[in-house]
Fold this protein.
Amino acid sequence: MLQALAEPLQYTFFQRSLVAAVVVGLLCACTGSYLLVQRMALLGDAISHSLLMGLAIAFAMGGSLFLGALVAGLVSAAAIDFIRNRSPLKEDAAMGIVLSAFFALGIVLITTIQKDNKIDLNHFLFGNLLAVTSGDLWDTGLAAALVLGAIALCYKELHFYTFDRLGAQAAGLPVRWLDWGLTTAIAITIVASMKAVGVVLVLALLITPPATAYLLVPRLHQMMGLGALLGCCSSVAGLYLSYFFNLPSGPAIVLVASGFFVLSLLFSPRQGVLFQGWRAKAAGHAPIDSSSIDSSSIHSSSIDSESTDGTDS
């Protein structure tokens, strides 16, 4: 078993892919935790789909595809913010409009470009972790260091802003800048993860590991830590599956992460479906005895269920 796992490590391309997989798993879980807790998962979807337009424009102009994707992500975030603040539409409607419009524009641009030039963006759409180059690895590492460093420096402010936006504004925090900073971090994370899981599937790596951790632990920092561990394990396991079974790396990683989520959904001691059913069944058949009710345990359970919604301060 160990010999089989060690076999691909002799290849330089696999070593690069392994490092990239760990970095992407860690980065996506940390930034995705904020999206999940703020119930803004669609923002990641909108930004990731808008990158297609940036890739097409950068290819046509002969520029950096990563830079083009990043600019497109920031422009889409600005468009969502403009619609949300300058119209009566809610956030989900603004994200849906921008997502569909930018993705459609990207497809039109690629179709137009392909009339004159052969363009292959499949590895950006669906990922190809085994083809990561040294340059890609440096870009991913730089993006991860930038985003994770900013989160570490502003963790308290981001925590306050995430759970109580009005309170943070009243306390004098620069809510507008925090909003933009977090959006920029999400855009950088998605661009850095394109090579691993692709534009179409990057949302799964942003949301699924933190969602799995959400079912297992009660506090935000625990959720980020466990989500990062699950994200790294999913990325590495998906990479090995891709190598041994000749599978596309992005979908393999997402399937492993989804498998972890299903296990957590069923067997989580806190919120697992099976444990909830068992508790309900036990409560329904237990004799009613008011003296046996432990009010402190009820209070503790309530706090645990709300910790990732704002009491983790």
Summary: Residues 287-306 have pLDDT under 50 and may be disordered.
